[in-house]
Amino acid sequence: MSEITTSGPSDSALEIAAAVRAGERSAVEVVDAHLAQIEAHEPAVHAFNVVMAEQARAAAADIDARVAAGEDPGPLAGVPVALKDNMCTNGVPTTCSSKMLDGWKPPYDATAVERVRAAGAIAIGKTNLDEFAMGSSTENSAFGATKNPHDLNAVPGGSSGGSAAAVAAGFAPLALGSDTGGSIRQPAALCGVVGLKPSYGAVSRYGLIAFASSLDQIGPFTRTVADTAALYDAISGHDGRDSTSIPEPMEATVPHLDDGVAGLRVGIISELFSGELASGFEPEVLAQTRAAADALAAAGATVDEVSVPSTIYGLSAYYLIAPAEASSNLARYDGVRYGHREDGAANTGGMMTASRTAGFGSEVKRRIMLGTYALSAGYYDAFYGKAQRVRTLIINDFDRAYADYDVLLSPTSPCVAFPFGAKSDPLTMYLNDVATIPSNLAGHPAISVPFGAGRDGLPVGVQILAPMLKEADLIRVSAVLENAAQESAA
Length: 490
Hints:
This protein is an alpha/beta fold. Among the domains are: 13-255, Amidase signature (AS) enzymes, CATH 3.90.1300.10; 313-386, no CATH class. The protein is built from 15 helices and 11 strands. It has helices at residues 13-21, 27-45, 53-68, 111-118, 161-168, 185-191, 225-235, 283-298, 314-329, 348-359, 362-375, 381-404, 426-430, 437-442, 471-489, and strands at 48-51, 80-84, 122-127, 174-178, 194-197, 218-222, 265-269, 302-306, 407-411, 446-453, 459-465. Strands 1-3-2-4-6-5-10-11-9-7-8 form an 11-stranded mixed sheet, sandwiched between helices. Helix 4 links the parallel strand 2 (80-84) and strand 3 (122-127). The longest helix has 24 residues, at 381-404. The two termini are 23 Å apart.
């Protein structure tokens, strides 16, 4: 295993914000400390596509001026935040790690970006990802792979690998990612950080460059559960610019950090723990999941196994629904309106073909073709229509499980971080998301929390799932697991 690069600034986001708001620490000092960590280790990790050093220092100076004037800049005052490079940032390159958008600068901020800034956080850079968020290892980026700070020879997971690695390496206490089939939770597990996928519609998708619109969701990466709660509370809530945004107010999660789990009913999803599907999971991952269940039981929860039968079909349904939506969303990149354009073609059709051939990477092309096929005449009902019916089965099975259990538990990823190139076969790579995809199909929230270590001492993440808009339950369970993991490691 290569050198670990997780040293550096270690204060939590809430500790930093409290010190900045009290005038005990300057935001400029905080930003400079994190930029120094980036300068020292970013060449080895490659978490960022763009480091926003000049903008971050200017924003920090503004925060300090507001504090000096007696203002409160917000609950995340002076805290650096890394932004996945598929979220629009006004005047800053937003590329989706694709040649198709190389150098494109949006004229506006995504709502989630607006909200973290309104809370006082400081954008410090745009993070690397699998191209257009399609992947589970961040090996598919057009700008080179991101490396796992715990082992530079291993992947950080994906597609939000840059955001997970940035938090794990101490480049920023907070990061935002997007999760379409596990792209927050899986890299969080592999990098040993906390990653939350909120309920669909709880966080605005306005300004998030679309992959699969019925599945995409923005959420936080942090080193602590308390920071996750604070960041989620800052970005959640209704946004009239997103037609899928839930109009009701979101319940704050920070007040539930210390609620504990006494009397809570926890169901371990048997298909993802002891069933045939789990036979491919690493033994150490399953052992840590059992240890997490035991920790919850010791804290007063009732823990049993529960069957959610249709979860075994989630992967198959997802890889029809998501590519179908991607083929539609990515049709806008035609070399005409914006993005990469190849010149010299004999006609418009040839220009479009040449532009898309040069602009998209192999995994994006694979999913566009799969999705187009699934939507084509004569195959729609057999593939896409059937996948949507499976999606309904998954929703119904989760509803039945939640009638008896408050939250569900499973591994986040079947394995710990794996070496680069180890999963070059697409199907093998897709299996990384087998435990995370079902909650995307259902639209429910789920979180990955670091819990112990597995093979070669690499981090293991356990996943807690909850019904729609029950993020507060995820936070209270996660806080108990976080404490148990710290006590076990002490």
